[in-house]
Specification:
4 helices, Helix Hairpins, two-stranded antiparallel sheet, rod-shaped, alpha+beta
């Protein structure tokens, strides 16, 4: 426990600190709940995107035979140049939000390539978009989880350390001041009772 003086000034300082901690604790608890809720929401969105990605990939299964015959056609068919994001603020945490992907597609000669290659290009772009979107959700989750950890540590610090320390300090100081006051009254009575005898 931190050292403190047994004075009225220290009593006021400890009382003010206790009020401050008790005022901030509910805000921190609310932030903690909000962050937990956001993490659950982001996880649900990421799962939804992953599910869509699985559906799109499942559609590719019917083409696997075609693609296996000419794998060189698929090489660098669609490449992500940039993942475009904007920024949002969740409970004081700046997070990226997915906007779109900027892709570069390989030139397809419609006369010398199979007809399915156009469809494959569209599906590949869709898969890359969903994959990028899921990566942005994972980054959101990472950032909010880090903030949740910090907030949880602060809540625990206030609940388990700071508030109990202040309460204990106030209790000890009040006892000491009470004892001091009692001693002063007793000394006063003793001094008063001695004064007539000396006169």
């Amino acid at each position: 426990m931190a050292k403190f003086k047994l004075t009225k000034t220290e009593l006021k300082a400890q009382t003010d600190a206790l009020k401050r901690f008790q005022r901030f604790l509910p805000m921190l608890q609310l932030k903690k709940q909000q962050l937990q809720s956001e993490i659950a929401g982001i996880a649900a969105k990421a799962d939804e995107v992953a599910s869509k990605e699985r559906e799109v990939r499942a559609k590719l299964d019917s083409w696997v035979g075609l693609m296996a015959t000419e794998p060189e056609l698929l090489e660098n068919l669609v490449v992500v140049k940039e993942v475009k994001t904007s920024s949002a603020n969740i409970a004081g945490v700046a997070i990226p939000t997915f906007e779109a992907i900027d892709t570069e597609k390989k030139e397809i000669d419609p006369w010398s390539t199979p007809a399915w290659l156009d469809d494959a290009s569209l599906v590949a772009e869709k898969v890359l978009s969903l994959k990028s979107q899921r990566a942005v959700y994972e980054e959101q989750k990472r950032l909010i989880t880090a903030e949740l950890q910090t907030t949880s540590q602060r809540v625990n610090l206030f609940e388990k350390v700071k508030i109990p320390e202040c309460k204990e300090a106030i209790r000890v100081i009040k006892i000491a001041l009470g004892d001091e006051q009692t001693a002063a009254v007793t000394r006063g009575k003793i001094a008063k009772s001695r004064t007539p005898e000396e006169g």
